[in-house]
């Protein structure tokens, strides 16, 4: 797993909160995906901050959030440590473990969320905010 530092621009998203903490993550994703007419061409993110998980999709335009009845939010830009995780679906526990290892190594900026970018069905990019 190659770790590197990247600078992200802020990302405008529509989102659904995971109810019941992390145990509600799957349901949040199902709810979000059910609101969209198609998943094709969309960029999906998970954001975790202050014990709240948000399943997110980048907006295409400002009006679509109103159309789909979803709140909007902005994933903060800035410096992030980045690590790719392959085959994440069969080993979901690796996500939290990797964020913990990244925080120990890089130091985390706890004022911003940890971000998951779902690059494909099998690959996820973990982004830890750093100072």
Provide a compact summary of the structure.
With 131 residues, the chain is of the alpha+beta class. Helix content is 24%, strand content 39%.
Indicate the percent of residues in helices: 10-25%
How would you spell out the order of helices and strands? EEHEEHEEHEE
Q: In oligomeric terms, what are we looking at?
A: single chain
What portion of residues belong to β-strands?
35-45%
CATH fold type:
Multidrug-efflux Transporter 1 Regulator Bmrr, Chain A
Mean pLDDT: 93
Level-2 CATH architecture: Alpha-Beta Barrel
Number of helices: 3
Q: Radius of gyration over alpha carbons?
A: 14 Å
The dominant shape is globular
Strand arrangement, major sheet? 1-6-8-7-3-4-2-5
Structural class, please? alpha+beta
CATH superfamily: Regulatory factor, effector binding domain
Counting DSSP E segments of at least 2 residues, the number of strands comes to 8
Number of domains: 1
Could you tell me how far the N terminus lies from the C terminus, measured between alpha carbons in angstroms? 22 Å
Residue windows where pLDDT falls under 50 for at least 5 positions: none
> Would you state the CATH class?
Alpha Beta
Largest sheet, described in full? 8 strands, antiparallel
């Amino acid at each position: 797993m190659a770790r590197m530092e990247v600078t992200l621009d802020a990302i405008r998203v529509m989102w659904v909160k995971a109810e019941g903490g992390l145990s509600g993550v799957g349901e949040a994703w199902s709810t979000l995906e059910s609101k969209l007419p198609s998943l094709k061409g969309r960029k999906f993110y998970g954001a975790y901050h202050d014990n709240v998980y948000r399943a997110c999709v980048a907006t295409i335009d400002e009006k679509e959030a109103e159309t789909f009845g979803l709140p909007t939010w902005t994933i903060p830009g800035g410096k992030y440590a980045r690590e790719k995780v392959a085959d994440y679906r069969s080993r979901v526990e690796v996500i939290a473990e990797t964020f913990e290892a990244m925080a120990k190594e890089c130091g985390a900026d706890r004022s911003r969320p940890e971000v998951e970018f779902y690059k494909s069905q099998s690959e996820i990019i973990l982004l830890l905010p750093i100072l």
